[in-house]
Write a structure and sequence with these properties.
Shape of chain A: globular
Largest sheet of chain A: 5 strands, antiparallel
Largest sheet of chain B: 7 strands, antiparallel
Distance between the termini of chain B: 39 Å
Number of strands of chain A: 7
Radius of gyration of chain B: 17 Å
Shape of chain B: flat
Oligomer: heterodimer
Number of helices of chain B: 1
Number of helices of chain A: 2
Chain lengths: 188, 163
């Protein structure tokens, strides 16, 4: 009985120590001030001076590969500037992780049925042609998630993509530092 | 139900239809829904969509929850299996959803990602989510409605675009 009590006391003390190790610097107030001047390279482009935007529902079905499908949508509807979000489910996919040393995407296979928890992306022009850039997070049957840069996505049973097309084109330029095409608000 | 909804009305324009009375929105309108502690998101959205006659909407949201139940579509049974139940305070990292009509009734489809106190995230098809302390949802309603029809292959209603 005494031994049990001593063990309980020890557990109590160690859990108190565990709590006290979380110092004040581990927490932050919701009203903490946000600093300024820390994003000196940020650029802004007006995409809609008040003209109406266009909205499309782009719906994919069983067996469709959605990434190439979105590029075909952009080409067919002559999209020069757009952003989108999507939900749905997939039978499989390949996502990428950008390796800054190799300047390449490492392929991550997503095998089997997954929910598309969130897909978001944009469409901009590179050398006059639309380019689709999209990332997604997918969830497996236990709720755990993985995600990355979308390389391909095989739809099962549907993917609902809600696209907003803006009237002013977004241009991309080649970035030699990363070998990527990046959106460049300065270029016309 | 303690949520608050209001229009961000700058882009919306209204006119009377030729048949009189009924308003037609000929441009997309943006609404903000602010949920409060205790609100259940899926149920409130269903009621709100029905009440407002929303039928061609997409939305996103962030916030925090005291309880979340997430589903995963099981292709074998054609049903949503419960992927995980989190009976604890979580950040609502991402909410993406849309609303379409099936037989005239709005169907709300929502996927969410939530973050636990260690930063690990879980996600799935929204089955149930109780708000604490807030959820900020921005919804765009289009003038043209989307229609869902039962898809025999998957056994669930999917959005069908009329030719």
């Amino acid at each position: 009985m005494r031994k049990t009590l001593r063990v309980l006391v020890l557990i109590g003390v160690s859990s108190m120590i565990g709590y006290s190790q979380e110092t004040a610097s581990d927490y932050v107030s919701p009203s903490e001030a946000v600093p300024r001047g820390k994003a000196p390279k940020m650029q802004v482009q007006l995409l809609n001076p008040g003209d109406p935007t266009k909205q499309y529902a782009v719906i994919f079905y069983q067996g469709d590969e959605a990434f190439s499908g979105l590029l075909e949508f952009a080409e067919k509807y002559q999209v020069t500037s757009a952003h989108f979000t999507a939900i749905g489910a997939l039978s499989g996919a390949t996502v990428g992780w950008f390796d800054p040393q190799r300047k390449m995407y490492k392929k991550i296979p997503i095998v089997g049925q997954h929910e598309v928890i969130g897909m978001s992306g944009d469409i901009a022009l590179y050398q006059g042609k639309p380019v689709v850039h999209t990332h997604m997070v997918v969830g497996s049957s236990d709720g755990t998630m993985r995600g990355g840069h979308v390389l391909d996505a095989y739809v099962s049973p549907t993917l609902e993509v809600m696209v907003t097309v803006d009237p002013i084109a977004m241009q991309k330029r080649f970035d030699p530092a990363t070998d990527l095409t990046l959106i460049d608000p300065a270029s016309k | 139900m303690s949520f608050v909804a209001f229009y961000l009305g700058l882009r919306s324009s209204r006119k009377e239809s030729a048949r009189g009375g009924k308003q037609i929105e000929d441009e997309p309108k943006t609404l903000v829904l602010i949920f409060q502690t205790g609100d259940e998101i899926a149920g409130v959205l269903r009621q709100f969509a029905k009440h407002q006659g929303l039928g061609g909407s997409s939305f996103k949201a962030i916030g925090a929850l005291s309880y979340a139940k997430l589903g995963w579509f099981n292709w074998e049974t054609k049903k949503y299996d419960p992927a995980c139940v989190l009976d604890e305070q979580v950040e609502l990292l991402s909410v993406i959803g849309d609303i379409a009509l099936k037989d005239g009734e709005p169907q709300v489809h929502v996927h969410v990602a939530v973050g636990r106190s260690d930063g690990i995230a879980y996600g799935g098809h929204l089955l149930e989510a109780r708000v604490r302390p807030t959820c900020e949802l921005i919804l765009t309603e289009s003038p043209i409605h989307l229609q869902k029809k039962l898809d025999p292959e998957s056994g669930i209603p999917l959005i069908q675009i009329e030719g």
